UniProtKB/TrEMBL annotation:
Family per record: Belongs to the MoaD family.
Keywords assigned by UniProt, alphabetized: Nucleotide-binding
Listed name of the protein: Molybdopterin synthase sulfur carrier subunit
CDD domains for the chain: Ubl_MoaD
Length: 83
């Protein structure tokens, strides 16, 4: 299956791309996608992923064991500073 991963803020800078399509086996989870992203971008991105939040099809992911579906959109949101 194919999942579109979109990166925001520092995650985008660390990945070097705004978005990319990942090919994953059927039955893959958010955790599986994050593991593949870590392998594809071993520099700064793994550290950012440790603190990042994820949206799956625009809904916050609380459990990274949540299953992905073909054509899903996974957003990587690093922590944002603000006040």
């Amino acid at each position: 299956m194919t999942v579109l991963v979109r990166y925001f803020a520092s995650a985008r800078a660390a990945a070097g791309v705004e978005e990319e399509k990942l090919k994953l086996p059927e039955g893959s989870t958010v955790a599986d996608a994050a593991r593949l992203v870590r392998e594809l971008h071993p520099g700064q991105l793994p550290r950012i992923l440790d603190a990042a939040s994820f949206l799956l099809n625009e809904v916050a992911v609380r459990d990274q064991n949540r299953a992905l579906s073909d054509g899903a959109q996974l957003d990587v949101l690093p922590p944002f500073a603000g006040g």
